[in-house]
Design a protein that fits this description.
By secondary structure, this protein is mainly alpha-helical. Helix 2 runs antiparallel to helix 3. Helices cover 79% and strands 0% of the residues. The chain has 10 helices and no strands.
Length: 221
C-alpha cells in the first residue's frame, strides 16, 4: 500500500504542475457540447433526443486527449524502467498511475457532464442516473485508455493509434450508458444497464492492472 500511495501522490504532483495538459480535455468537452446546440434546431425535443449521445461521445473523446502523457513522460526519462526493475509488483504501480489519471482527467469531466446536460434540456430527474452511469463507466474507460497507452509507449506519435485501438472497445460503455440515461428520462427502470456497467467495471479493476503491466513490458521492448 505504501508503494501505491507513493506512486499516486507522485503522479498527482506531476499532473498538477502541467495545468495546460489538464485543461485540454475539459476545453475540448466544453467546445463540443456548446457547438452542437448551435448547429441544431433550438427545439427542446430535438436537443433532448441527441443530447445524451453527444454528452457520452464528447466524454469518451475528451478522455483520449490526456492519454499520451500517462506513460510517455516516465518512459522518456527512464522512470518507467526503474519501476519495472523495482521489487514492488508492477500491477500495484500501474493501478496507482491509472487511479491518478482518472482523478485528474475523468473526475473533472464527470463533474462537467451533469452541468452541461442543461444545454440539451435533459430533465433534472435524469441527472443522478447520468452521473451514476458515468462513474460506473470510469474504471473501464481508464483501464482501456491505459492499456492503449501502454502498448504504444515506445511510439513517438502514438496518440492516433491509441484512439483507433481504444474507441471501438468503448462501444459497450456508450451503449449501456446512453441506454440507462434514456430509460431514466422516460421514467423507466435503469437497473439493467447500470448493473452491466458495474460488471464491466469490476472486470476492468480485477484484470486491467495485469493486462496493463504486461502491455508496459511489451511496449518497452
Amino acid at each position: 500500500m505504501s508503494v501505491f500511495k507513493a506512486v499516486l501522490l507522485r503522479d498527482l504532483r506531476v499532473a498538477f504542475r502541467r495545468w495546460s495538459e489538464l485543461a485540454h480535455p475539459l476545453i475540448f468537452f466544453v467546445i463540443v457540447v456548446t457547438l452542437f446546440p448551435l448547429a441544431l434546431s433550438p427545439t427542446a425535443s430535438q436537443l433532448r433526443e441527441v443530447g445524451v449521445g453527444v454528452l457520452w461521445v464528447a466524454t469518451l473523446l475528451s478522455s483520449l486527449l490526456a492519454l499520451d502523457g500517462l506513460f510517455r513522460g516516465d518512459a522518456d526519462d527512464g522512470t518507467l524502467e526503474q519501476l519495472l526493475l523495482s521489487p514492488a509488483p508492477m500491477t500495484i504501480t500501474v493501478l496507482a498511475k491509472v487511479t491518478a489519471h482518472s482523478l485528474v482527467t475523468l473526475v473533472p469531466l464527470i463533474c462537467l457532464v451533469p452541468m452541461s446536460a442543461y444545454t440539451f434540456n435533459i430533465p433534472l430527474a435524469a441527472l443522478p442516473t447520468l452521473a451514476a452511469a458515468l462513474l460506473l463507466a470510469a474504471p473501464t474507460l481508464s483501464v482501456l485508455v491505459a492499456l492503449g497507452a501502454a502498448l504504444t509507449v515506445s511510439l513517438r506519435r502514438g496518440g492516433s493509434i491509441v484512439g483507433l485501438l481504444v474507441l471501438p472497445l468503448t462501444a459497450p460503455l456508450l451503449i449501456f450508458g446512453t441506454r440507462a440515461t434514456d430509460l431514466s428520462i422516460n421514467g423507466e427502470p435503469t437497473a439493467a444497464p447500470l448493473l452491466l456497467l458495474g460488471a464491466l467495471a469490476a472486470l476492468a479493476i480485477s484484470l486491467g492492472p495485469l493486462a496493463i503491466a504486461a502491455a508496459v513490458k511489451v511496449g518497452l521492448e
